[in-house]
Design goal:
With about 280 residues, the chain is α/β, with parallel strands linked by helices. It contains eleven helices and eleven strands. Helix 7 packs parallel to helix 11. It is elongated.
Amino acid sequence: MTSERLELDEPSKSVLADARKLQRRKERKATGRFLVEGRQAVREALRTPGLVESLFVRWAQARENVDLVEDARAAGVLVYAVSEQNLATLTDTVTPQGIVAVSKQLDVPLADVLGTDSGARLVVICAQIRDPGNAGTVIRCADSFGADAVVFTSGSVEVYNPKAVRASVGSMFHLPLVVGVELADAIVACRDAGLQVFATDGAIGTDLTDLGDALAQPTAWVMGNEAWGLPLEHAELADATVAVPIYGHAESLNLATAAAVCLYASASAQHATKTQPAKKN
């Protein structure tokens, strides 16, 4: 397909109305679908067969998204062209990126991720985090450092919130997501799968730089709420609390930044262990 021959249908009012409704959490929960905005995120969604149901492209940007249109059509996805005004009703951003997909939700049961034979070595547990930008960024960090899953406990922000989806920049389609489980159940599952459990605390606990060889072991990191962190009774469920050292004058680290530091430390130690040459007798 060349850009000169690109022909697209316009959606009916009912198709557009159904997609618009997915801006509301109630509708996302009822239908098991959500909106994916932006080239990168849509591209990654399309790489999972059967996930994307429809694609909306702004007429003015149809040609520059012709590759994604081709991918969608090859996958049997319905593709529509819409006006700038109609596309704006599918997104809450000030400047929409010009392409939005309707996707099936993709979270999986905890048991599917952390069974006894899962082989998981790096997991993030988000305990009641509330900011969608943080949620999406933690998913992106987990993807970047090779984590096996991200778990969101009960009371956490919805991972299909449009801001969280955008902040993940497509990473939510790369690794398993578990939502709505109790923290205690998530920690038990991690231990049963052979992972040690570290809870982050900005003020107390073992210094991250003092963990040494322990960082190379299969690990689950528990990240607490942005405002109040982890309550004492929740922190006590972990094997240890860990503090990320701050050498400057900032009072604390943003939750997603702290997650990135901890995940990088674990991933680096685990990969270094894999690449070390065998010792000679």
